[in-house]
Amino acid sequence: MNSLNNDLDNEFDLDDMDFDLTDEVNETPSPGPGSAKKAKSLSFLNDIPVHVTVEVGAKTVTLQELLEVKNDSVLMLTKENGAALDIKVNGKLFAYGEVVVSNGHYGVKITDIVNKDIN
Predict the structure, then answer these.
(1) pTM exceeds 0.70
(2) I want to staple 89 with a disulfide (CB 3.0 to 4.6 A). Which of 12, 36, 94, 111 is the partner?
(3) What is the count of structural domains for the chain?
(4) Is residue 65, in this structure, part of any structural domain at all?
């Protein structure tokens, strides 16, 4: 194992490499011309897929209740008729909305964005 560490030390001389990341970490965005460059440099993040779900409601049941479910069974949910739907991004609440139908497809109309900062 020690020889492997020596081989790596010989191949990579860390003293010759520049790892100064303090400018990127401590820099605060400014509305000047440099801010457009930073925004453009992060544009690759736009292609990252996120999972969006729309929840009509929820219910906690026992395992026994779940095993008794058959075709045509009805599970009463916690949301009342007409209540806004929860729109979640990667499992976190993002907005509320309502069901719409367009060209024969269901959709959701955003009525209230509650969390633009999904973490």
Answers:
(1) no
(2) 94
(3) 1
(4) yes
